[in-house]
Amino acid sequence: MRPLIIAVLAAFAAFAASPARPATPFPPRAAGPDLALAVTAAQGAVRACRQRGFPIAVLVVDSAGEPEVLLVREGAPQIAASFARRKTALTMRYHDASGAVAARAAGDTKLAAEIKADPAIGMALPGALPIIAGGKQVGAIAASGAGSAKMDEDCARAGLDTIARRLR
Question: N or C: which end of the chain has fewer CB within 10 A?
């Protein structure tokens, strides 16, 4: 029994004395607007809709479609954030405003079926716009909950307009 205890203690001492091995690092966040710009765009969209009397959710995603900023104003519909996520997924996949993709899908059954089959999208909802910097899509911004698809897109555009000159 004593040799087993000594072996266990020796193993523990060797483990404790060895330098800590870092866990496999996660990859860095994908390219996208920096956080300050993403926050500014989201706040601009919320402000534009608030001035019109609409409580909305706004989502800004990076080039991989991962959330950077999500703002949900008090009184926004419960489903608004979920719809904003679907809208940005549509914009990221098709590299166009979600409203433009929705319009194309209305006349293209193959495209409509492709959208419906994608669990991240499910339906073509207007209200998201691509964020372009240096000629490349680096993200998307979506607004949801303004009461109409046009108003959602107008609010997203107002947010995007607040950072447009600073995108490189």
Answer: N
Nearest CA to 148 out of 54, 81, 48 is that of 54
135-158: pLDDT as tens digits: 999 999 999 999 899 999 999 999
Three-state DSSP at 127 gives coil
Roughly how many angstroms between the first and final C-alpha of the chain, as a whole number?
Answer: 69
| Two structure tokens written together for 89 | 């997924």
The pTM of this model reads 0.83
Question: In whole angstroms, what is the distance from residue 129 CA to residue 144 CA?
Answer: 12
